[in-house]
Write a structure and sequence with these properties.
Length: 98
Amino acid sequence: MGNKLYVGNLPYSFRDSDMEQAFSQYGSVASAKVMMDRDSGRSKGFGFVEMSSPAEAQAAIQGLNGQDVGGRGLVVNEARPMEPRAPRAGGFGGNRGY
């Protein structure tokens, strides 16, 4: 078990400090980051928390997974490495007959 946790189904009003406060009940929080939409500035509804030890991370999963926060049931589990994405198509250029 690692120290980094995925946190999903966050209220859109949640910020880094809110997440750090919620997880600090279960141990020392090394980092807390809510992912934000670049265009709207609003939360994307998920983020990541890094706890200081695997035991603290496990305690946070058991304590917060499924808990109601702002009318939403949190999803808290061990973060997995990001899977590679296929290259994006579209954009400018291409052969469009111009």
